[in-house]
Amino acid sequence: MNTALKLGSLPVMGINMTKNYGSLKASKVKVFAVDGAGDAEFPSFLPKEVEKIKDPFARSLSKRMKRLPVQIGMSESCIMSSCVKPLRQSNKTSPVVLLHCFDSSCLEWRCTYPLLEEAGLEAWAVDVLGWGFSDLETRPPCDVASKRHHLYQLWKSYIKRPMILVGPSLGASVAIDFTVHYPEAVEKLVLINPSVYAEGTGNLAKLPELVAYAGVSFLKSLPLRFYANMVAFNGIPFFTILDWTCVGRLHCLLPWWKDATVSFMLSGGYNVISQIKQVKHKTLIICGQHDQIVSYQHVVKLHSELSNAIIREVSDSGHLPHVDNPKCVAKLIADFAQGDADVNAKSQFCLAQLTALPRQ
């Protein structure tokens, strides 16, 4: 468990169906009924275990997943890169590009993604190189520079306009690193419970390769991932948590997952501490009211170090508010993307709430 937290936290997938989300459920059904994903087949590149998943929103988003060729290096070689594309592209609003947490996939956005589309946004959910469902049969390096270059090439080939880049947890480090190197590709940033003050993978980068592979195997294990869900969510039936666990580790079943994760671990990982103050883009920081992974002090510290940032707190949520409370997160992202001044006003109230929270 400590290894997982050092790397950026495990992806805990799921939504507490005992909570009251008003019209959220109806909204999601409406969106997926329009796109016809309910009748589609699962992409052939997904592990066959996807057929056993019961979560209807994970099943629907899985069926919309595509692989796009993304050129890497100076050669003509491409990586078939997994993502969920928008149903239609529009020049009316900036595209919203959704990253994910450490060792997760675009399925992390299964609850929020349809709500962003319903709000009229051009939303892309992309898998960061080395995680998710891209074809890595050639075993490319999966260090920070490679992840950054791959994302840029995907943006350059398909998105092509300044984007609103959304990064949860370690995905916030991915977003900051990318923005500093390619500022012209980013219009605004959204950082969700941002894990940005870790100094890379630390001593894990010095492990012998054999030990690193053993550790990564543990990271993949069903008991560890199940435990992470148990810690994050309370009062959820056993079989529901088990299903969420299967969603969260589905990408780990690909044959190159272990090699890609060890490559990242031994490369040193993300350390963006010195880059934070270089970010000049307008930034929305979203934090979960009950986040037990990223501390309150770090959220406030990040707000103070970014020159153009606002904070918004999401109630009744933990480390993954886009999973706990997707309706609220979708509205915050949509308002921010569309330039709603109300987000700025609400953030002042939110900051007052944050400073009143007990220190952890």
TrEMBL record:
SUPFAM superfamilies: alpha/beta-Hydrolases (SSF53474). It holds the Pfam family Abhydrolase_6. GO terms for molecular function: hydrolase activity. It comes from Populus trichocarpa (Western balsam poplar). InterPro entries: AB_hydrolase_1, AB_hydrolase_fold, Epox_hydrolase-like. It comes from the Eukaryota. This is AB hydrolase-1 domain-containing protein. GO terms for biological process: vitamin E biosynthetic process. Signal peptide: none annotated. Residues 96-327 form the AB hydrolase-1 domain. Gene3D superfamilies: alpha/beta hydrolase. Transmembrane segments: none annotated. Coiled coil: none annotated. GO terms for cellular component: chloroplast envelope.
